[in-house]
Amino acid sequence: MKKKQEFKIESLEVKRFYFDGKLEIDCPTCKTKMVRDFSEDYLSYPNFGEEEGLYFYCEDCEKEFEMPGVINATIEVSYDVDKLKEI
Ligand SMILES: [Zn+2]
Prior knowledge:
Number of helices: 0
Strand order of the largest sheet: 1-6
Number of domains: 1
Bound molecules: zinc ion
Helix content: under 10%
Oligomer: single chain
């Protein structure tokens, strides 16, 4: 019997947490698209489910921005109890 269970992650004791994900917003000054790529720009000791400032940098006008945001994290574990065996 296949089962699936989800676990909500509240925080990670990880200095550099990278993941595949991008946020794109327009620069409020020059309208150039700014990209926050989490596969290159890591989160440091993330607290999930809490509002924190998300950093953006505009390469065109060289301005820095911060936007409030909340990141949630869930781990899903799938397993098959029929294949349980002694090792
Ligand atoms: Zn700009």
